[in-house]
Amino acid sequence: MFTEKFLEVIGKEGVVSIVSWDGDGAHVVNTWNSYLVTKDSDKLLIPAYAMRRTEKKTTNNDKVQLTVGSKEVIGHRGPGAGFWMAGTARFISSGPEFDMMKAKFSFLTRVLEVTVTSLKQTL
């Protein structure tokens, strides 16, 4: 699922937006490209420190949408490449993925795991 261009984008610094929603509306939280860790060909692991509203909304509706981008990567029309993705989310607070992520990002309290079901380059 993850393309070479996507991996190139998350290898450069940029902002990531994560959108979750439920019956009370949408919520957006941000993180950094450098915090994304790929697992298998369709999972992202993201360190979570706060993200409490995101966790609450994904308990009610596990669907999320994310955007990532970097102006340092050539896109469709020149400098700047970006991606939109959709998937399902769950928060992890123990286990091998948690331990591996905690070793990389000491500040996290949980790990947001996103199983990506759709990925599209937008820029």
| Coarse morphology | globular
Strand order of the largest sheet: 2-1-5-6-7-4-3
Mean pLDDT: 97
How many helices? 3
Structural class: alpha+beta
Rounded to the nearest angstrom, the distance between the terminal CA atoms is 18 Å
> What is the rounded Rg?
14 Å
Strand content: over 45%
Q: What name does CATH use for the topology?
A: Pnp Oxidase, Chain A
Proportion of residues in helical segments: 10-25%
Using the coordinates above, name the CATH class.
Mainly Beta
* Spans where pLDDT lies below 50 across 5 or more residues: none
In N-to-C order, the SSE pattern is: HEEEEHEEHE
CATH superfamily: Electron Transport, Fmn-binding Protein, Chain A
Please provide a written account of the structure.
The model has no long low-confidence stretch (mean pLDDT 97). This protein has helices at 4-10, 52-60, 96-104, and strands at 15-22, 25-32, 37-39, 43-48, 63-75, 78-92, 110-121. The chain has a seven-stranded antiparallel sheet. By secondary structure, the protein is an alpha+beta fold. It has a single domain, classed as Electron Transport, Fmn-binding Protein, Chain A (Pnp Oxidase, Chain A), CATH 2.30.110.
